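Example record

One chain of 584 residues, shown exactly as stored in the release files.
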Amino acid sequence: VSTQSTGDCNYPVLVLFYLATATALISLVLVVEIMVMVVSMRGGIMQVEKRRTIPTILHFRLVLFVLEIGLCIFGTYWCFVETGCSRDIMISVRLVVVSNWVLIALTLIGIITVFDPFGGYYSDKSMNDKLWEKRFKCWCCCIGRQENSHGAFQDLARIFSSQFADVDLVASDIAVGLMLVSQQQHLAARKRFVVNQMSFEQECERYNFDNRKSRETFQDLTYFSSYALGAYGWPLFMYIHPITGCFNLCQECSLFGGPNEGSESMCHSNHIALKKLSGLEDNDILYTHFTSNIYSPAFYVAVDHNRQAIIVTIRGTLSLQDVITDMVCEPQEIPGYPGLLAHRGMVLSANNIIKILDSDAVLAKAFSLYPEFQLLILGHSLGAGTATLLSFMLRDRYRNLRCFAYGPPGGLLSLEAAELSKKFVVSTVVNKEFATRLSINSIVQLRDGVLSAIQINQRSKWKLTLSHILSVLRLRPIAEVVLDSEEEAPLIVPSFARSAAEDPGDNLPKLYPPGKIIFIHRNEIQASCCNSYSGAHYDVLLAPNTVFDTIPVAPEMLSDHLPDTLVHLLKELQPIDISPGSHV
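Predicted structure tokens for this chain:
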């Protein structure tokens, strides 16, 4: 701000003082941040002695942070209360002040969420539990106070404090560790492929499409997969149709939605998207419950006249409340099945769905209209796990019920419960999707793999990151990223489908995915002209419940889990056309 421009202000000295001080302080902060970056780049992740000056620099940065707050308070009072300057000057100063407050707020949020006031040393475990509980309350403050939120936060705090109390890593350390684990898994899979192309398939068996019952089961899985899509409503519809989705929904926008929709979205767009994704008509949809809370995922009930079935479809993870339900993964006994354990959050979710169905007599009314129909319960992801447990709880009422679990969670059932579920549950898993391999044990195993990788590799983070980028671009061999040579590279985390017989070493109850598992496995065919891998195709296998115990760190781990990917593959792999029939 020039002297001439400050002449229009009653306090020209204050304007110059504030802007000059703010510029000097920001410059000093920038220098300190560069110092932090330079010192942080020294040595390997575990070579903390090479970064021993970091605490001193951070203490100095804390002093500057306090000065920033004081300067912002002064600037706020002056430019919003004691004005008296021209409009152009005030707009410029106010923009600076608001920007500084935003940066301060972001810094405070970061400190609150990651700072450990006890320094990792706890005289009592309850201190760590309370710290994690406060973190979850801070991270999930937007959901407000719900009926089950307090208990859920306590459960989450207990899980995280027990599993991550001894882990002292920052976000960039974890990111680099995951890069190393990803490269180790890739290298292990490539070595195994070269030695024995059929090694993974030997743990499974080919799905027998020649068998009539097996073929009909796969047809039903494909036919009803679109019902699982419909449960996600308008968000998934917009994801699949990013350009035309809004127009298609608005075409049928109505002030009147489906039956029992409760707190629906504007214009009942969930109901419209449900019909478009599933192919159902208004008369086929008997009940919808699109409101999700902790331990209460969204679901709907429909009738399919072609397959003569009453279908209960439960939505997968789509809201923060659903994420909390997913994360409450401690084992709990399944009601009515002494000694059989399951994922606590999904047991409670199934219980709440039964209460809703019974309170409105939804299934009783449906079967009074269609007494000869069978009950089919299905879902994707969180919905698949909840559908499995709902099937356990309703088996006494409906002896012929069946359950289709698309991409079910890995840490769902104890081994005995998983074996029992094969009588009425069929699951579908796509290649490297992470959810079917996600459990307390696999997370602990991944944690240990990350720690082992960064302990063995002593190169600095920036060198490791650069090497990883070069390997992705195929400009550097993968083995050189893991260590200095392929012969020395330790395969800490073997493959994404390792046998569960190798215990990760933690005394935790192991939980497994449910039912008979149809595994859609991508098999990389080695090109005859070179050593590259191309021509990916998929094999349909029957996999044991115990092979999905290692989380794959790969780009496909998320995309393979998406419901539209699953539906597309099921239709692509369908051996014959799907025609209406009476089998379910």
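Notes: The chain has a mean pLDDT of 79.
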